[in-house]
Amino acid sequence: TIYVNEYRCIDDHVASATKVLGLLHRSNLAVERVSYKELYNDAINELVDFTEDFARWKDTLSPSALTPSSRPGDEVEAAAAGRQQPDALADPGSAVPEHFGGSECPYLILKVRRDNLIRDTLVQISALQHQHEDLKKPLKVIFKGEEGIDEGGVQKEFFQLIVRQMFDLNYGMFSYDEEARSFWFSSTALENAREFNLIGKVFGLAIYNSVILDVHFPMVVYKKLMGAAPTLEDLRQVSPGLARGLQTLLTFEGDVEDVYARTFVVDYEEYGVMKSHPLKPDGDKINVTEANRKEYVELYVRYLLQDSITQQFSAFADGFHQVCGGPALRMFIPEELELLICGSPSLDFHALQEVTSTEDGYTRDHPVISNFWSVVHSMSLEEKKKLLFFCTGSDRSPIKGLGSMTFVISRNGPDSDRLPTAHTCFNHLLLPEYRDVDKLRKCLMTAINNAEGFGLM
Asked: What sign results for the dihedral spanned by CA atoms 199, 205, 207, 213?
């Protein structure tokens, strides 16, 4: 860890130390020796004004801006290579001011119907195919027929719903591996280029609007977005059973050609019909042997994770990069990109309890607040996720955990049969003063199990 000097300023010594961290980081990328998190430095992160630093760093990318007072080494190495926490740039839109003129709307406004969500979104986003900068405006969502005003909560539900629908297996865009518990691009979805492009843009919009998505992709998706080539190790997160089989082939001691009796061909099923794809020219005439089995595995992995989904992934990546492409993206490693999009799966409600504030007559030791946390800590993980979604519009934790959130519980009148309500835009729970823990549990569980839609209170 780098400790900042007593004057708590970034001087030449601190800048030099972060350059050393940058060298260690790049070395660690080549051969991972320690977790990437070990190279974060909160002491520096707390001092850097990232809005100012990001703008200054952008200036260094222009050759005309390279002056002695704005050298890339000082700013980029200290802020980027020195390993800042990924949430520091989680909202690029806040770091780069929007410049508007005339009566141009400062927001990206989507008006959608719940029962036609994908089509409505696709039509409106497609209309902006030559206006990519509009995708970087703050998003406002209007559900037609509903009174909710989008101060953040409506857009959170919009993202949840569209991701849920597009990843529905009945939609045919993705397949799901039960063992890996992750989705993968369907190799047969050849007519869904616009939809794959849309989901890429949805990922980018989520980053720009600081919304966490409930997405279950393997890490190789984020590696491919960063331009890395997939490996057999990546296949373990996509299809663990197949990866184990290929690994067994690589380590098999015996007559590979006789025992495996395989050629350089991939067999797969498409709409109930078995088909074959040669991994190389005349692959059906080339037997897999001990001498060429490594090449066979490499070609097999490349086909599954790259060649068979080229059209689908290219559309997805193009959509993502239209919103989030650029030099800033290259600051991140795949693990950080996943955190930006998906947040942390770890839910520490004890940490959330420590930072929760109370209003309108409640205190931290009020019986209702004590009962509330007693109920929360007794919940299952799925119930806790529902509670988090009910209160914040997302069932995932921010990058730094629930302890970094702002969460408020307010008294919403005396004991009654009213259910708890929430302002998801502000992570604000309104809780009536229920007479006992049993009634609180019943009303709270009813609320979180029936939480969808917005209205004016």
From this structure: negative
